[in-house]
Amino acid sequence: MSARMPPAEVAAWQARMPRAFGPTPQGRALRWLGGLAFLAWLIGTLWWFDVSPRRMWNGLEGLLVITRLMIPPSPGEQWVEILQGLAESLAMAFLGTFIAALIAVPLGFLGANNVVTNTLFRFSLRRVFDGFRGVDQLIWALAYVRAVGLGPLAGVLAIATADIAVLAKLYAEAIENAEKKQAEGIAAAGGSPTLIMRFGLLPQVAPVMLGHALYFFESNTRSATILGVVGAGGIGLQIAERIRVRHWDEVAFIIILMVLMVAAIDWLSGRLRRRLIGAR
């Protein structure tokens, strides 16, 4: 049978550690203020975007009409062009990811603190990575469409530019976490910095780098299908054209093919990454 603590002792402990007995009045007030601020922000954004039940209902009705027009899916008369568009999107994703992964390798070494000891240089390079990471692929695609014209080249450049900084940052973190003993052994034997990177670090991080590149290829397969909407080639351009003329049955057919293609790439990429990294 357990003895109960006297009320005076409980009051003493409560005065000494008030947070152990629940939120303080100040904490409760802050929680209420936080909740009210969140509620005000939620209502304000709904009012700002003119979100109303009537608009939502009308949108739902329009969506149901589109869904009805999508059934049954049909390839139309230009199914060869649809297949070519899918192949183009896949090629855009592959080429953009390959270019990004290739350029990111030396940048990753330059951004790792166990390779480059100059803090100012490394800090500046990392901030450049952060700056590039803040720009989405669609923004790069719009810029490249203006620079090199409509077509898959703009899509390839958009994918590569958007992924270089992200991959370089991930590669730099992988290099920093590499085992030091191999690099120290080569350095003790009189190896140059290049030999240390080639034989001490690269063999350790190469599977991780390949794994990241495969994951980005998988993700870019989905992204490449959207870039065509802004004129950067691929199947997205054909979707935009068919939506413009309201051929919803052909849009549904393209979406089904896209889902099957992305699922196949996901499956294949996942198996390759597990084989390279050894994840279960």
From TrEMBL:
<feature type="transmembrane region" description="Helical">
    <location>
        <begin position="252"/>
        <end position="270"/>
    </location>
</feature>
<feature type="transmembrane region" description="Helical">
    <location>
        <begin position="90"/>
        <end position="117"/>
    </location>
</feature>
<keyword id="KW-0813">Transport</keyword>
<dbReference type="InterPro" id="IPR005769">
    <property type="entry name" value="PhnE/PtxC"/>
</dbReference>
<feature type="transmembrane region" description="Helical">
    <location>
        <begin position="29"/>
        <end position="49"/>
    </location>
</feature>
<protein>
    <submittedName>
        <fullName>Phosphonate ABC transporter, permease protein PhnE</fullName>
    </submittedName>
</protein>
<dbReference type="InterPro" id="IPR000515">
    <property type="entry name" value="MetI-like"/>
</dbReference>
<comment type="similarity">
    <text>Belongs to the binding-protein-dependent transport system permease family.</text>
</comment>
<keyword id="KW-1133">Transmembrane helix</keyword>
<keyword id="KW-0472">Membrane</keyword>
<keyword id="KW-0812">Transmembrane</keyword>
<dbReference type="Pfam" id="PF00528">
    <property type="entry name" value="BPD_transp_1"/>
</dbReference>
<dbReference type="InterPro" id="IPR035906">
    <property type="entry name" value="MetI-like_sf"/>
</dbReference>
<feature type="transmembrane region" description="Helical">
    <location>
        <begin position="138"/>
        <end position="160"/>
    </location>
</feature>
<feature type="domain" description="ABC transmembrane type-1">
    <location>
        <begin position="86"/>
        <end position="269"/>
    </location>
</feature>
<feature type="transmembrane region" description="Helical">
    <location>
        <begin position="195"/>
        <end position="217"/>
    </location>
</feature>
<feature type="transmembrane region" description="Helical">
    <location>
        <begin position="224"/>
        <end position="240"/>
    </location>
</feature>
